[in-house]
Fold this sequence. Notes:
Blueprint: E1 4-8, H1 13-24, E2 28-33, E3 44-47, H2 55-61, E4 65-70, H3 80-83, E5 87-95, H4 121-131, E6 136-142, E7 144-146, H5 154-164, E8 167-170, E9 177-182, H6 183-193, E10 200-204, E11 208-210, H7 211-221, E12 227-230, H8 233-238, H9 266-270, H10 278-292, H11 302-311
The protein binds NADP nicotinamide-adenine-dinucleotide phosphate (NAP).
Pfam family, one: Epimerase
Domain NAD-dependent epimerase/dehydratase: 5-71
Protein name: 2'-hydroxyisoflavone reductase
Amino acid sequence: MGARVxxxxxxxxxxxxxxxxxxxxxxxxxxxxxxxRPVTPGAASIVGDRRRPGPATRADLETGWDTVIDTxxxxxxxxxxSQSIPAQRYLLLSTCGIYQAAGLSRIxxxxxxxxxxxxxxxxxxxxxxxxxxxxxxxxxxxxxxxGPDDPSGRAAYWIDRALRGTGVLVPARPDQPVQLVDVRDxxxxxxxxVDSEHTGVVNVAGSITLFAEFIDLxxxxxxxxxxxxxxxxxxxxxxxxxxxxxxxLWLPTDHPFRAHLRTGTDRATxxxxxxxxxxxxxxxxxxxxxxxxxRHPHWLTLDREQALLRSIGGS
Length: 315
Ligand SMILES: NC(=O)c1ccc[n+]([C@@H]2O[C@H](COP(=O)([O-])OP(=O)(O)OC[C@H]3O[C@@H](n4cnc5c(N)ncnc54)[C@H](OP(=O)(O)O)[C@@H]3O)[C@@H](O)[C@H]2O)c1
């Protein structure tokens, strides 16, 4: 008999994969969300808003669970409802973005202090409240997650470029680290943690690769239709191109978040976390991209990219 599992936010990008992985392991899964997206087959559903749960929603949530997996707590107030949900275990999704990375070249492990002034400081408050719950808690700090359906478009940007058959601007340095974890490996790990006894904090991030290797993988998988041009990052920065938002995964050399792309995951490995090769994730992203043609509105436009390439003599 599987565990009774409640996945708060189980219809999101990561949550829907977590639900599928828990169902596959034979758990009895219920999703709690506001009902704006479909529920993965095999799971039951409680519809409500965690910030304003009505009496009926509260009654459904208070039936008791072996494990709660909370994928959508962002500020302290989000944890109010968590206190009234009886559970043996509480798994909270947090982010490696909370580490105080200034002056560090990498985040060695979970003992690196957190940054109370970062954009993710709400997650720090959630983590602190999770530690006070009567349930055994495990905080899972995620690195950059991708895979088919990734709404951030971080990897899809480069797939789009690889398949487009044009010149492609690469402002990152070839030795910039890239650390991507496949959403399905995150989900498998969380499903395995449902009935484990691990507590505390664990970083879950992918293997570290270099931007040059990442581009080689993308080019190989895209069958070389596009030509990639490495551009000096200062040149591109001086022309107002925004790293990460407009050109996903690019973080300039002195960017304070660079250390986050070299996050240590030894504890996760000891706990059984296994990540697939990046080439496998890229192959699946390409299949997904070919049918979905996903494009994010913040991406650098083709016209602007080609103009930049002409000015460096690359097109
Ligand atoms: N993606 C990454 O690279 C990354 C990296 C580090 C950490 N994380 C963390 O991973 C977690 C999951 O991210 P995601 O990208 O999968 O999120 P997402 O796609 O935005 O999904 C959010 C989920 O929460 C539900 N939800 C939102 N507000 C709610 C509310 N007030 N009450 C009840 N349900 C609510 C949504 O459904 P409804 O809208 O129907 O309510 C949906 O099921 C987040 O905590 C994020 O900070 C992600």
